[in-house]
Amino acid sequence: MAAKTEKKDGIWETVKTVVYALLIAGVFRTLFFQPFWIPSGSMKDTLLIGDFLFVNKMAYGYSATSCKIPFTTLSACPFISDRWLGSEPQRGDVVVFEHPVAKVEFIKRLVGLPGDKIQMKNGVLFVNGQEAAQTPDGVFTEDYALQGPMRQTPRCSNGAVGLGGVCEKQKFVEQLPGGPSHSILNIGNASTDNSLVHTVPDGHYFFMGDNRDNSTDSRVSQNANGVGYVPFDALIGRADRVMFSSAGRSMLFFWTWRGDRFFKKI
Fold first, then answer.
1. How many CB atoms within 10 Å of residue 159?
2. 41-78 pLDDT, tens per residue?
3. pLDDT band at 126 (very low <50, low <70, confident <90, very high)
């Protein structure tokens, strides 16, 4: 009888340990660092399909959007009407945010702050009339192959190369006015290479992908299936470092992990 009681107590202790561990992990994910796996190529070559990173939720404080309960649409902070412990993002930050309409998570680079005037001219970014200078930086190459769980094929500047061929994109280093420099890619002429002046409203931000001709971002309005201006309360956190990266269909396929991307700074 005593043995059965001890066995039941042991099972109950195991169940409690698992529950406590899940609760702690849920709180950690809700308030501090959220895992994020890169699903598309819009941020190449800064971020590759299959990069796994943790999003720093403390960077910009908390909103009802940023502290949602894991795997639900419910907020753990419904009492927050604006942001709590908020701090302003900086130009050049790589940010995860929730699309204001579609309610799905995006990751892009912040290029426009509230009040900024943003314009594209022949594929070159201008911020408040100042050119974000682009310096040629060679060619970015990758295999033309099915990538990630969505099995996407990359777009290439050197035409249709066929499966197994070498896909090329022109690479540049862009210097953001009043911000850092970073890598961008160019595939060719695109409809988003030229635009009218976008004036960023108060409390909103303007985002672009580093893979400029293969990114759905703020250059296109929400009404036209773009991202448009993103409100401050939609920001989830800042991406600072890639933890590891998988070139295969799943991050669990450890034999496809990219050895040069462990703990890579973004």
1. 10
2. 999 999 999 999 999 998 898 887 877 777 777 676 76
3. very high
User: What are the tens digits of pLDDT across the range 8-48?
Assistant: 556 666 665 566 455 554 554 555 778 899 999 999 999 99
CATH number at residue 185: 2.10.109.10
Structure tokens at 225: 């299936």
Reference 105, options 261, 227, 250; nearest CA is: 227
Residue 204 lies in a domain: yes
Catalytic residue, candidates 40, 42, 66, 246? 42
* DSSP run (H or E) holding 256: none
> Which is nearest to 37 in space by CA: 227, 199, 247?
247
Does the active-site annotation cover 68?
Answer: no
Between the two ends of the chain, the Cα-to-Cα distance in Å is: 59
Residue 227 has pLDDT above 60, yes or no: yes
Q: What's at 215, amino acid-wise?
A: S
Residue 221 known to be catalytic: no
Query: What value, to the nearest 5°, has the Cα angle with vertex 128 and ends 126 and 129?
Result: 60
Q: How far is CA 29 from the centre of its chain?
A: 16
The count of domains in the chain is: 1
12 lies in a domain?
Answer: no
pTM: 0.87
Active-site hit among 68, 108, 169, 171: 108
